[in-house]
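2024-03-11 09:14:02 DEBUG pipeline.ingest accepted 1 chain
2024-03-11 09:14:02 DEBUG pipeline.ingest length=518
2024-03-11 09:14:03 DEBUG pipeline.predict start
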Amino acid sequence: MRFKVKDIRLRPGFSEEELTRAVLRRLNTYRENLEGITLLRKSVDARNKKDVRIALTVSAEVLNGKGIRAEEHEAPPCRIADLGLEIKKSDRKAVVVGSGPAGLFAALTLAEAGLRPLVIERGGSVDERVSAVEALRTEGRLDSECNVQYGEGGAGTFSDGKLNSGIDKEYFSILFGEFISLGAPADIAFDANPHIGTDVLRGVVKALREKIRLYGGEVRCHARLTDIEVKDGALKGIVINGEERLPADIMVLAIGHSAYDTFRMLNAKGLTMAPKPFSLGVRVEHRQELINRAQYGDYASLLPPADYKFSTHLADGRGVYTFCMCPGGEVVCSSSDEGTVVTNGMSLRARDGEYANSAVLVSVSAGDFGVGLWDGFEGRAAIERAAYLAGEGGYRAPAQKYGDLIKGIPGRGELRSSYRPGLNATALARCLPQYILKDIAEGIAVFGRKLKGFDSPDTVLIGAETRSSCPVTVLRNAAGEGSIGGIYPVGEGAGYAGGITSSAIDGIKAALKIYGKL
């Protein structure tokens, strides 16, 4: 029998024996009755800096459950195969557009159901992307079709690989089980803030591609969707790279938040979209040691690199929040268009870098840049072009210390940072609207009251962070279809997810709806 034991609290660095004794006490049973312990959740409780504790929930397997007063626990399904999908034989032609988490997990689900999907990706393979991103960071040379935004694995491949999400936990165990089977670390199954790390995630993406192929799917890179064929309101075919025409009557649309040209083409063909709120801001950078000390006090050396997550609502009605915090990581150039600068954060699995970084974002409404469908895209692009000019070429990023920002002083002197190709000390007002900067300054002041040193005058603000979400949403009905029959919009770009986990699960759910319909 299995029992769930909650809220076990041990000191950092606890031993396996200490955990075993704690479980035995809570179950009120003897050692010989305990067959095994499986961690279900692990988090750090640092509310009392003088008495930091590790909070644990475990599943304990016992031989005899008589007299044990604890919740019985049944292990959840941990693979797509556990869903019991029957192999479908169908003449329907399914294509998945985009190989981010939504697209890849939709494709894997379809493949395991026997539908042999074709995955097309405009960017390069993981290995090609690694080379292209390194060329940008070291030489200031951008490949506009193979970069942090475009390519196998999506934008999340060059991130921290965080898997925490605020969505309903349905399918979490399946998603995490698949990740672990593909090479992700086992601790993502129980860590309260699970992460894979960009270095490990690259191998996971390649393994996921090969698993899709093993089940009969096909994955093609450098294959951009340039047109679709529609008849009687339903999808009939696609065009790749302007020349190759293929039949297709099912499409999982998982194009991410950057492919402006693809959005415009699909809308012109009749796929209904609507403008939606999104966010703009900067990437802030501190020394990781400062964050560790502020979060964990004297226990900092005993615990993994600390993170944070803050939000506040300002008097002007806008929200300010941190996003995609990368402990021990680096700030990366995430541009996909020439002559633009876009920032993002990335961490390796070890999170052992000198700096911590996070986006500080301000929520903007659909009407802040105009009333048209594309005004959000155009406003975002204008900021990205201005950031390139403010960086003064070579994909250097404009940056300003927080102390200078609040004093109205342009950036000065040398700024130490993980960002490459490098920073240009200047006024962020050269690329970001004044109301955004005002709210960022107020938000950082609030966050400084929650984490000592966050609002240090030396905190470096790097512009511009513009790709946290998409300025439009692709409308879909209760069956998951868009206004063109057979097209299933999914993931972050379509407006239905906000990270790796929620995007992947949205892709799985779309594939299950397609499976159910067939």
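2024-03-11 09:14:41 DEBUG pipeline.report The two ends are 39 Å apart (CA to CA).
2024-03-11 09:14:41 DEBUG pipeline.predict end
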